[in-house]
What does this fold into?
Amino acid sequence: MAVARAIPRNEQRDGERETSPPGVFWRFWAAATVSGAGTAVTALALPLVALTVLDATAFEVALLAAAG
It folds into this structure.
């Protein structure tokens, strides 16, 4: 037989459902922001590195951009 835990009166709120803690949203938001920034930097930096360091041709840089 399962025993239900009693919630003290000061912790109960009428009509309010239990949701995830607010920190979960902010961690997700921060992770998504960092991921998006990293993707944007890579999309810009990879062709530039190919041009400057590897002396790639315009066709090779276009292939890199298309692969991305």
Observations:
- The chain is about 60% helix and 0% strand.
- The radius of gyration is 25 Å.
- The chain has a mean pLDDT of 80.
